[in-house]
Design a protein that fits this description.
This protein is α/β, with parallel strands linked by helices and 326 residues long. The chain is 40% helix and 18% strand. The chain is built from ten helices and 13 strands. The structure holds nicotinamide-adenine-dinucleotide.
């Protein structure tokens, strides 16, 4: 099976590509290696993928039509695409909104256009986000809830992406699945995310910024559970039964809304150090609570998250200490 994994040098793309390679799939990875966060971390992830004989890496932009056309021509036989390339991060979308439309909307469109022309194409899996729930107050967040009140451009591009996948399933009968990821964390994680910044700051005896006076809850999902879900979904494309388009949306989370202060306490106890906390007001674009209803993916895919934060945070800290030598 030949799979195109976009964002292969990113956090989730790297882990997904690695798992696919380990089970014997061929992976063509593409990533633009932008400097939204340290590209050295992206290159270090690629260094782990490169020795796999089934791995090919293309440095390029998914929004570059010519580059994608050249990629599919140079790598015939791609049957599946996992689109994990994106401009991620809620806060940066207030600073550089254009980057989000470029990668998350234009880039997705270029990939969908390529997919619809690929012979024997089986499944397009796209990374959406819990952010689409925006100002939703009903908990847990269900895929049946209305998601037309985004509170950031990041969220708006994720919602647009889901709609675009649905459109391509309708027009061209391409099976698509959009996965709404809930706060993914773990080894090789993203330096712009709170858990990563907290560990770094505490080890460097720097203060940490905690928003909304710490009154936040997040459904933290460990990376291995996410990859289990992505691969289970990838292997089961929605069937085309002729009428409704073969398009699906799932939440993929841990189904636990953890208080942020408990998360911080766990980081402190793992590091054996106290955090110097600076409480600050809620940030624009942010949401107070996320909590995933995962009944659909449990029922259809047997998805069962196995790693809680008590196990996952120490695993992240162990990786962090090893990778940065601290
Ligand atoms: N990590 C999370 O908690 C989380 C939560 C919800 C949704 N998501 C979504 O999951 C996906 C993967 O996120 P991640 O955490 O691995 O982020 P990441 O930033 O680590 O990975 C994204 C990768 O895509 C690459 N990229 C960006 N724009 C590109 C472009 N135009 N062409 C080619 N490559 C490009 C980046 O260089 C990066 O390596 C994203 O769509 C993100 O929005 C992540």
């Amino acid at each position: 099976m030949k799979v195109l994994v976009t964002g292969a040098a990113g956090f989730i793309g790297f882990h997904t590509a690695r798992r696919l390679l380990e089970r014997g799939d061929e992976v063509v990875g593409i990533d633009v290696l932008d400097d939204y966060y340290d590209p050295a971390l992206k290159r270090a992830r690629l260094d782990i993928l490169q020795p796999h004989s089934g791995f090919t890496f293309v440095e390029g932009d998914i929004a570059d039509r010519e580059a994608i056309a050249a990629l599919v021509e140079a790598h015939p036989g791609i049957r599946r695409i996992v689109n994990l390339a994106a401009q991620a991060g809620v806060r940066y979308s207030l600073i550089n909104p254009h980057a989000y439309v470029h990668s998350n909307v234009e880039g997705l469109l270029v990939l969908l256009e390529a997919a619809r022309r690929l012979p024997g194409f089986e499944h397009f899996v796209h990374a959406s986000s819990s952010s689409v729930y925006g100002a939703n107050t009903k908990l847990p967040f269900s895929v049946d809830d209305r998601v037309d009140h985004p509170v950031s451009i990041y969220a708006a591009t994720k919602k647009a992406g889901e709609l675009m996948c649905h459109t391509y399933s309708h027009l061209w009968r391409i099976p698509t699945t959009a996965l709404r990821f809930f706060t993914v964390y773990g080894p090789w994680g993203r330096p712009d995310m709170a858990y990563f910044m907290f560990v770094k700051a505490i080890l460097e005896s720097q203060p940490i910024r905690v928003f909304n006076d710490g009154d936040m809850r997040r459904d933290f999902t460990y990376i291995d559970d996410i990859v289990d879900g992505v691969i289970a979904v990838l292997d089961r494309a929605p069937a085309d039964q002729g009428k409704a388009p073969p398009a699906r949306i799932y939440n993929i989370g841990n189904h636990r809304a953890e208080p942020l202060m408990r998360f911080i306490a766990l980081i402190e106890s793992t590091l054996g150090r106290k955090a110097n906390i600076r409480f600050e007001p809620m940030q624009p674009g942010d949401v107070k609570e996320t909590y995933a209803d995962i009944a659909d993916i449990q029922r259809d895919m047997g998805f069962a998250p196995r790693t809680g934060i008590d196990e996952g945070i120490p695993k992240f800290v162990e990786w962090y200490r090893g990778f940065y030598g601290v």
